[in-house]
Design brief:
Blueprint: H1 15-32, E1 35-38, H2 43-56, E2 60-66, H3 72-85, E3 89-93, H4 100-104, H5 109-128, E4 132-134, H6 148-154, H7 160-163, H8 168-177, H9 203-218, E5 225-229, E6 232-236, H10 242-246, H11 250-260, E7 265-268
Parallel strand pairs: 1-2, 1-4, 2-3, 6-7
Antiparallel strand pairs: 5-6
Helix pairs in contact: 1-2, 2-8, 5-6, 9-11
Length: 286
């Protein structure tokens, strides 16, 4: 894996504190006895999965939810990682897109998505005798609008990273110490997060976004978003990547490739990459 390509400044970490949180994480998983983990291949759920496997072996089941909002490239990476680590893994197909409330995309979309996921995980746990279900929420997640947490609370889903007080830099350091190959992988939210609140989520729109982002992936970028604004594709990449996509023929390839997916206009957001930038449209909360 190449060096981390993010806008984050590497923080100074307390190695003893990180080691203690790692120990507590593994111990907390061991205390569960058995667990079904919602696993996406992102760094947060990967660390939860790795700790669960370390503590419980095959009494930990990592479940990947396959749907229109989950990029195939991410699914393939998650499956490769799980096979490489020897984890007990399963793929289930979720149907959040069939829920009119999810499609409406009114700001609570993540609640309905997580509700669908946790319903599947709970059914597996109940049918196969797993004592708990868990997912990868962490301390830093609480600083943003994450309605999926409400779905987790309603279903008593465990948040092991949050429970031991891990933030994102600490999670990445634990992943590095555990020799997880994606320890420095940029965050990759679901494709629906590219659609402005109030614009309906459809399978066609998600497919267009995925195809447009594959154009950027083919240029060697590993942190990006294509935000969907009807006929406009708004590209977000770190400012450090601006020169890469504007250099030589790259811009022409990107514009041509993204237009082939159905967009009429292709723009570059000069603010650069911002995780969760669509949340800027939501009313300010106290």
């Amino acid at each position: 894996m190449s060096a981390l390509l993010t806008l984050e400044t590497k923080p100074v970490l307390d190695s003893a504190l990180v080691a203690e949180k790692h120990r507590r994480l593994v111990e907390s998983m061991r205390e569960l006895g058995s667990v079904v983990v919602g696993f996406s291949g992102g760094i947060d759920s990967t660390v939860v999965a790795a700790a669960a496997h370390e503590a419980l072996g095959d009494r930990a089941l990592m479940v990947i939810a396959k749907s229109e909002s989950y990029p195939k490239a991410e699914l393939d990476l998650a499956l490769d990682l799980a096979r490489e680590r020897g984890w007990n893994t399963r793929v289930v197909e979720t149907s959040e897109l069939e829920n009119p409330e999810y499609q409406a995309n009114d700001g609570r979309r993540c609640y309905f998505c997580k509700s669908e996921l946790f319903t599947h995980l709970s059914q597996i746990a109940a049918a196969e005798g797993y004592a708990h279900i868990a997912y990868g929420a962490n301390v830093d997640d609480m600083s943003d609008w994450r309605p999926g947490h409400q779905a987790a609370k309603e279903r008593a889903v465990r948040s092991p990273l949050y429970d031991v007080g891990m933030n994102k830099p600490e999670i990445r350091e634990v992943a590095r110490l555990m020799h997880l190959p994606n320890w420095n992988k940029p965050a990759m939210a679901c494709l629906s997060s590219r659609i402005p609140y109030g614009t309906p989520v459809t399978a066609e729109t998600l497919a267009r976004i995925e195809a447009a982002e594959n154009v950027l992936r083919a240029e060697g970028l590993d942190q990006f978003r294509v935000r969907h604004h009807d006929t406009v594709a708004r590209i977000e990449v770190p400012r450090t990547a601006f020169a890469k996509i504007m250099d030589g023929d790259a811009a022409d390839r990107i514009v041509a490739g993204i237009k082939k997916t159905g967009y009429l206009y292709v723009t570059l957001d000069l603010q650069g990459f911002r995780s969760g930038s669509m949340n800027e449209l939501l009313p300010k909360r106290d």
